[in-house]
Amino acid sequence: MNATSPNTDSHEILVIGEALIDIVATEQGTVAHPGGSPANVAFGLGRLGVDAGLLTALGDDEFGTMIQDHLGTANVKLLPGCLNLERTASATAVLAADGSARYEFDINWDLAPHTLDPMPKIVHAGSIATFLEPGASAVVSLLAQAKGHALVTYDPNIRPALVGEHGQALTTFERTAALCDVVKLSDEDTQWLYPQLELEQVSKEILELGPILVVLTLGAGGALLATGSDQVRITAVRSEVADTIGAGDSFMSSLLYGLLAHGSAELSTAELEHLGRRAVAGGALAVRRSGAMPPTLEELTALLEEQRLAAS
Question: Domain named Carbohydrate kinase PfkB: which ranges (predicted)?
Fold first, then answer.
């Protein structure tokens, strides 16, 4: 597709990136779930009641239909031009005994050209889509369009098997992060991208690229939120773990929900703590059930109230 397609739908948050089928292999057999980090984030936003759109690339096939139907249950809208691949991507997740997942991918990525008109309040990009060409360049172009006009957020969700050699991937990540207001990374992302740096050094390194807020998820260690002048640590929520698939994406959805409500990434210490607690709670609720199912707003609100009462 050579012509540039306008974004004819107006959304509060536009998510840009891959949607795929997660094929989960367990001792009980194989189950297919719609997935892909950006698609999971969009779905999580829809579950929280946010008007979210997804700009992605799918095949006009059974897997593509499965993803569209799944997103529709959360009222997430696909932008025009998304059915542009020969086949929908897939990722096979092999679960370990502790619920962690190892992925094997069948993916290609090419994004149809778009303009952001009208401009959403938040533009979020993620994961494989920001590294894998030819589509990655189109994603960067859209983030450049949004910079200064919308809140721009990014979760690289590093997949070492797909992002190329380390030096190239680091350059790509930093180029993309420089266009963003908020960057979120997992502890695994930080260790892979910056193996020689401590967490506080990683957040400082990324803030120097230009973002206002850097958020690092630490698994059982909770989360770290850092700005140029402030830093807060959020304690993890105790949870029985069914599996960890989509936990970081649910965290991201809840983080975006909070940023949308606040209207800015410039936050006081109290606001950072509130934002972080909401995001950590969203991730904790996701790991309690299998298959990357993020919480509803009611579930998230109930857990936050439970925490508030326990602390009082």
Answer: 11-295
